[in-house]
Design brief:
One of its GO terms (biological process) is methylation. By secondary structure, the chain is mainly beta. Helix content is 12%, strand content 31%. It contains two helices and ten strands; from the N terminus they run ββββαββββββα. It has a four-stranded mixed β-sheet, with no helix packed on it. Strand 8 and strand 9 form a beta hairpin.
């Protein structure tokens, strides 16, 4: 039985929603896509000039580009109080429920994005969080 579906999200664009209850610690799916270098990813998205990417960084310095050969995991939205966690095993990224999630709830991870740019007001606005949780940090960026 399918566990999740992608549909319009009240937080941002599309989101991933539980079709059935998920229990804490349950592996939901793998984040799939083309594995490439950061340099290639940066060039690819600079040329696209969309400001929207599906990149997931790996510990070895490469990234998974969910926009190329990816699956529904690429539609996971950010929330400061995420109900899912992402973890890497041998160059593969898996998403699991961090808490029990009821059928119909949207699944979230904390992006904790890292940037090389100085964190100006304009940069902060570009990475503004709109998750609406009580613990919202106001940004999808990780600690500076």
């Amino acid at each position: 039985m399918k566990r999740v579906s992608v549909r319009r999200s009240p937080v941002h664009g599309r989101g991933v929603f539980a079709l059935r209850s998920l229990v804490a610690g349950e592996r939901v799916f793998e984040y799939k896509g083309e594995v490439i270098s950061w340099r290639r990813a940066a060039n690819r998205y600079r040329q696209a000039n969309t400001g929207h990417t599906f990149l997931f960084g790996l510990t070895d310095g490469r990234v998974i580009d969910g926009g190329r050969g990816g699956n529904s995991a690429r539609w996971l939205n950010h929330a400061c109080d995420a109900n899912c966690t992402a973890f890497e095993i041998e160059g593969r990224v898996f998403i699991e429920a961090a808490i029990d999630i009821a059928a119909g709830e949207e699944l979230f991870i904390s992006y904790a994005l890292a940037i090389d740019d100085v964190r100006t007001d304009q940069v902060e606005e570009q990475y503004a969080c709109r998750c609406g949780s009580r613990s919202c940090r106001g940004t999808m960026l990780g600690e500076p």
